[in-house]
Amino acid sequence: MLDGRQKVTGTAQYTDDLKRPRMLHGAFLRSPHAHARILGIDASAALAMEGVHLVLTGQDLPTRYGTIPVAMDETALAMDKVRFVGEEVVAVVARDRETARAACRAVRVDYEPLKAVLSLDEALDPASPLIHEGRRKASNILRRVHQVHGEPSAGFERADVVLEADYDYPGSTHVPLETHCALAEWDGRLTLHSSTQIPHYLHRITARVLGLDPAEVRVIKPAVGAGYGGKSDVFANELCAAEAARRLGRPVKFLLDREEVFYAHRGRHRTRMRLKMGVTHDGVLTAAHLDADAEGGAYASYGVVTAYYLGVFLSLPYVLDDFSFTARRVYTNHPPCGPKRGHGAIQPRFALECHLDRLAHAIGMDPAELRRRNAVQPDTETANGLRITSVGLEECIDKVVEASGYGTRDPGPNRGLGLAASAYMCGALHPVYKTDAPQSAVQICADRSGRVSLLTGTADIGQGSSHTLAKLVADRLGIPLQHVRVLEADTDLTPVDLGAYSSRITFMAGNAALSAANQLAEVLDAELPFAKAVEKAEAEHGTLAFVGHYTPPKIGSRFRRQSVGPSPAYSFTAQVAEVEVDPESGQVTVHRVWCAHDCGKALDERMVLGQIEGSVYMGVGEALLEEQRYDGPMLVNPSILECNIPTVHETPEILALIVETHDPEGPLGAKEAGEGPQLPTVPAIANAIHDAVGVRMDRAPFTPDRVWRALRKR
Amino acid sequence: MLPLHPFRIERPRTVEEACTLLSQGGRPLAGGTDLLPNVKNGIEAPDLMVALWDIEELKQPLGALQTLRQVGDTVPALRDCTRSVATPTIQRMGTLGGNLLLNSRCRWFNQSRFWREALPKGACLKCEGGTHCYVAPRGSGCYAAHSADTVPVLWLLEAQVELASVRGRRTLPVDRLHERARDELLVRVILPSDPPAIVFRKLRARAAIDYPLLLTAVREDGVAVLSAIGPRPLRVEVGTNPEAAGDAAYAACFPLDTHNAPSTWRKHMVRVETRRAVQSLVG
Fold first, then answer.
1. Which end of chain A is more exposed for a tag (fewer CB within 10 A), N or C?
2. How far apart are CA B237 and CA B242, in angstroms?
3. Do A696 and A686 touch, CB atoms closer than 8 A?
């Protein structure tokens, strides 16, 4: 691997590894109230402490922002109100973290506590207090999305069996190993290092909030210890570090501790769903309607997009011409939710795949066969205007069914097999702000040493995107991987890329890298060794540098308002889980998961297998263990110990199988592998529990107490 | 990483020197696997830490400073209950004495200082200055769960503990360890020479790292000690019939709402775990 040596030997530089002469450290005073008006802040005692350099409050950075421009409801620090326990109210900058933390405790904040909105039902109750005043509609519903495609009522009439059921998917958080960290420096211009997935959006928003010309802001993303969506927003620590550095003229670092990451959150929305689907006796899905309510916490984050994702993928990976959905994403007085791996698609996928099992049993059909019969076909368009190119769904299903013995093998007493499948996008067709400029670009330079430098704005957050891009270029040019030097995510030096989200880098930056490599290859004499060929080309053409870029095709859609969901291509996944249920305790053990994933073309097999294993691992955690639990205003488990991510003991044997369909638009045919493989894990486990002991687990996680209660009711 | 508050640290070389320091208000520090996270969370803030690392006497077999791993490797009767603690790395740092004296735990208490103080009625009564119990709002005592994995087994083994202080040494049965004065140093555990057969089971959310949701130990004569359900382990004569044993334990135990796992299910598991323990004892 390109950066494997640095990671394994500990020499990779993460943001907190960066140290600067005269560097100061920041800390936050956080709200102890879920909802309260700020009456006054007295920081005089803190400012009088030795070693304290600066205190920032909301008034110091009043510009509102948000990653999604249609919902800019955040400020760096709370202004007039606090909206969740843990919200940043005051930032203190001091000579070290200990002093900054101690000084925070010396700041007096007067609050007038307000009634808090602490559940989905309270948020939907028009009588509840407003969390955000002054919105166009006086409501705690951030966004309601209602779409009707085809004629669902006619579809339900055509059905022989119509089933309706309720599902409840828990909130959970990302738990990246590296906590959020930012280091800002000021030398008349701003340089901001941050553990971010979105250097480009961070660049824009930092300039906006600080009132700087973007040309005077440089964002650098050092090595990042994972994100999973949790570093896709702009955070208070970044903006406060930047502002403090500007005011003090000294480097300032803000490192979050682990508990603070739980308040930064932006994790999975707890989502309550009611799904109704119809099917004919011969297994044709005729119609569906989904009602989904997502509990979003105190700020919008990507919540507007979440509301769309909850419904738009109902049309994949099974043909469904007549369907509708109503999705609401609400505000509550809890830490804000946002994108987590499989953003907004995980929850309805759980409902839909469990529902398909119900429907299959109702009509007496093998659940695998029901899925095959309705599988979306290549080169088609869905009812809601998603353009489908390559499809490996049936091959994925066949592979996991064959490998696991699903439907033919009796796994033994209290053991069961469950199947689920899914589709996911390879990058969002539309950026979060309106632009016709490329989503991704890669510049490559070669010189007579034989070295190729690859400059990219993409954010490698540990998923290995730089490795993948380097390998694409190295393979195309026929040079060793280590001869490609990647310089990534430095907005002064690297071309714009929108960032590490929506599984877009392999597809989009991959195409850009390949285009640049092709241009270079064209001027090289293929008969010569690479370095010689470059020298010859330099003599003929001058210094060699080529830029490739990627702008997604303008896909015409019958459904014009569909701005969320369209992607240049879709990956497909099928999984079978084998579980064992202890009928007395309710304890579920996942023994094995077979996962077949259509990634188009595996540009690097190990990377794809790694993403599949990581996805299944995360899915097992959400299926069995993880849940953001609130007791009134309090998050009860804000620690690595209590948030219950799986240990090696809970991690099943994962049998990853790669399916290649060679997408016509993917780089060398490649599609995504980073998020899609997580989608089927939870419903596959739910279906396996049903197969094992005959109970439907419609609420995740399937903790032993819940399974035990379900078994008692049986 | 969370910062530790500044404190003085002493490294006495003998039990007697340590006792003098403890009598001056020092806090014994052995493996630190529980104490240091608690200090980082502001649960306690000792000014003087008495590091026991250089005291040879405490490192003798069954000495308080023996790591859980060493104890498990050398004393078969204590193998299961020491191997169940946390993780292999923590077993190699954490000590026998530290586990015996493990502070009780509660979901309302084992949190950061920020979190405890943000509670609607302020920090709970286990904290300095706290007055309210979130587990038993009408109660006046603390119900945090005794969570030391080794204690149920040591109790059934009728182990003794040797304590030392500036006032001299004494020996107590392990079930009276709560009588230890704050300045008394746990020196060693004394086991009877011919240990009875004991089955130990630990219920927890995950198969490693987690503190217990329920500890069950049953001796060959049908005496059980259950723990992690309340502030102290509970001794119950359950007999050697598995079904009846489960019923007896179920009738005697009332797990409190100290854990994130619901107490109704934990009570149900008292029956299941006790029955299974007796089954493997007699089967």
1. C
2. 12
3. yes
Q: Which domain holds residue B93?
A: 8-101+158-190
Residue ending a domain, choose from B168, B190, B212: B190
Contact B184, B164 (CB under 8 A): yes
Q: B107, A33: Cβ pair inside 8 Å?
A: no
Q: Tell if the CB–CB gap between A632 and B120 is shorter than 8 Å.
A: yes
Query: How many interface pairs between A and B have CB atoms less than 8 angstroms apart?
Result: 64
On whether both B182 and B214 belong to a single domain, the answer is: no
Work out the pLDDT band at A184, boundaries 50, 70, 90: very high
Based on DSSP, count helices (H) and strands (E) in chain A, helices before strands.
Answer: 18, 27
Nearest to A30 among B114, B209, B268 (CB): B114
Task: Look up residue B171 and give its two tokens.
Answer: 């020996």
- What span, in angstroms and rounded, lies between the C-alpha atoms of B220 and B281? 7
The 3-state secondary structure of A680-704, one letter per residue: CHHHHHHHHHHHHHCCCCCECCCCH
Q: What are the structural domains of chain A?
A: 4-114+174-264 (3.90.1170.50), 270-429+560-713 (3.30.365.10), 440-550 (3.30.365.10)
Q: What three-state secondary structure class fits A616?
A: helix
Contacts of A609 (CB under 8 A, 6+ apart): A656, A658
Which of A566, A301, A530 shows the shortest CA–CA distance to A429?
A566
List, in sequence order, the alpha helices (H) in A87-227. 97-105, 120-124, 152-158, 199-210
Q: Do B271 and B171 share a domain, yes or no?
A: no
Quickly count: other Cβ atoms within 10 Å of residue B139's Cβ.
12
Model pLDDT for residues A362-404, shown as the tens digit of each residue: 999 999 999 999 999 999 999 999 999 999 999 999 999 999 9
Going from the C-alpha of B1 to that of each of A9, A98, A106, the distances in angstroms are: 20, 11, 22
For A64-82, what is each residue's pLDDT tens digit?
A: 999 999 899 999 999 999 9
Range list of H helices, A542-672: 605-624
Which residues are CB-contacts of A572 (< 8 A; sequence separation ≥ 6)? Answer: A317, A391, A392, A393, A396, A421, A422, A423, A597, A598, A659, A676
Based on the domain organization, do B276 and B179 belong to the same domain? no
B217 and B87 in a common domain: no
Among A498, A459, A491, A497, which residue's Cα sits nearest to residue A189? A491
Residues 6+ apart with CB under 8 A from A214: A203, A204, A207
Contacts of B123 in chain A (CB under 8 A): none
Q: Are residues B97 and B32 in the same domain?
A: yes
Q: What CATH number corresponds to the domain at position B261?
A: 3.30.390.50
Q: What is the pLDDT of residues A498-509, one digit of tens each?
A: 999 999 999 999
- What is the CA B117 to chain-centroid distance, rounded? 26
Ramachandran angles phi, psi of A502, nearest 5° = 55, 30
- The confidence score (pLDDT) of residue A561 equals 61
Distance separating alpha carbons of residues A510 and A475, to the nearest angstrom? 13
d(CA B278, CA B245): 7
**Mean predicted confidence (pLDDT) in A465-489:** 97
Mean pLDDT, range A622-649, rounded to an integer = 96
The per-residue pLDDT for range B105-158, each reduced to its tens digit, is 999 999 999 999 999 999 999 998 899 999 999 988 999 999 999 999 999 999
Nearest CA-CA partner of A574 in A592, A590, A593, A589:
A593
Contact B3 A637 (CB under 8 A): no
List A167's β-bridge partners, or say none.
Answer: A273
Task: Name every residue in A having a CB less than 8 A away from some CB of B.
Answer: 30-33, 85-86, 97-98, 101, 257, 259, 584-586, 625, 629, 632-634, 636-639, 641-642, 644, 646-650, 703-705, 708-709
Asked if residue B25 belongs to a domain, the reply is yes
pLDDT attached to residue A559: 55
